[in-house]
Amino acid sequence: MADQTAKLTLPDGxxxxxxxxxxxxxxxxxxxxxxxxxxxxxxxxxxxxxTGATTSAITYIDGEAGILRYRGIPIEDLAEKSxxxxxxxxxxxxxxxxxxxxxxxxxxxxxxxxxHEDMHxxxxxxxxxSHPMAVIAAMVSSMSAYYPDCLDRSSPMDLHITRIxxxxxxxxxxxxxxxxxxxxxxxxxxxxxxxxxxxxxxxxPAEPYEPDxxxxxxxxxxxxxxxxxxxxxxxxxxxxxxxxxxxVYAAVAAGVLALWGPLHGGANQExxxxxxxxxxxxxxxxxxxxxIKNKKxxxxxxxxGHRVYKNYDPRAKVLKSMADExxxxxxxxxxxxxxxxxxxxxxxxxxxxxxxxLYPNVDFYSGILYRAIGIPTPMFTVMFALGRIPGWxxxxxxxxxxxxxxxxxxxxxxxxxxxxxxxPRELRK
Length: 429
Ligand code: COA
Known about the structure:
This protein is mainly alpha-helical and 429 residues long. It has 2 domains: 5-67, Rubrerythrin, domain 2; 83-405, Citrate Synthase, domain 1, CATH 1.10.580. It has helices at residues 35-39, 75-81, 84-93, 99-111, 120-125, 132-146, 157-179, 193-202, 213-226, 233-243, 248-259, 267-280, 285-293, 314-330, 335-348, 351-355, 362-373, 380-401; strands at residues 4-9, 15-22, 28-30, 59-62, 67-70, 73-74. Helix 3 (84-93) packs parallel to helix 18. Coenzyme A is lined by residues 263, 267, 292, 300-307, 356, 358, 361-363.
């Protein structure tokens, strides 16, 4: 914070001094909280294009420079050296854990991996055509019914955090097993977080399943890279819902639903569907890019562009090289990867994409990795959600621990009818 003010002059000649807030990385904000009380004016910024909703010590992004850091640590270092569980601890608690802290955290996650047996009945109630995001959001929300202590705001926060982080993985794997008519596979305590998820997804009672270490590494990387991204749509949703005092399961379920949209977490599914469409129509990448530029069908190049990154998304860089490593290791020759590479190359040389600063984002290569791991396309957004859980939790925790938090409540500029009379029904034309 710095002792600076910005002077705002209004059309009627009045002016006011507004405090300037400065972040760790020298980002500047004008604090407009007193503006309405002092002048009657509000600010207007639909889509929150340039509005800071909070200060936060969790994640730093410099979209122009393509920088992403969790608690100060570059994402590239975490992707290479950390595990998802360690990164989750870092995001939630603010520091990398000591070995003893990591052991305790991992042990807690293992102990809380089962879901209440009664919750199994829910799966039977969904139509077989249900999108898994609908199922997962409903299941996360219903956890608040199974753990009603969450309604008591003084109940231990760490216990709820562990439950969500651990059980969501089981909920997601069970949803997949139910959707394909296979028996659910219970978690195996001997397996670490990501390997255990793969076991629940792909093991069958008749056959033992040993997760491939490179697949486990890829999944850890995918989850780490998705774990937080500061005030994105779903995280802001979690904060907004949580700001009303709603319990953490309700807030995280709302985050799952916000993530579902194709402009957010749903984009990874759309990328693969787009690549499949290009392949089915003869792999004419140049024609496809030209159609997008000419706004034919008003479509977008999915997996490209970002509200914050105006440079190559650092997460896409890591995933592009992981896609090469994983597909080589598994001996997979996926034509989707070739199409994706050509698409990227074509778009990055094109004036339309250059002038609008549109680069591949995290969703561009993640779908190809999920395919290689064997994750079905409708589960892609669920995978994003599993990775994002620590970020949602970290922001929820930061918000409820901050005693200055107020309920989120934007204002608006009304553009409807001025006051008018109620016309009796018989006189209406
Ligand atoms: N393909 C083609 N054009 C795109 C584009 C894309 N993927 N993303 C943005 N644009 C264009 C828009 O058409 C707009 O052009 P215009 O000025 O001629 O109207 C301009 O770039 C700015 O786009 P806008 O929608 O205002 O930017 P935004 O910050 O609101 O949107 C996204 C950000 C992520 C929603 C947007 O880039 C997008 O829809 N990307 C595809 C979906 C995706 O991959 N989402 C995952 C994000 S991690």
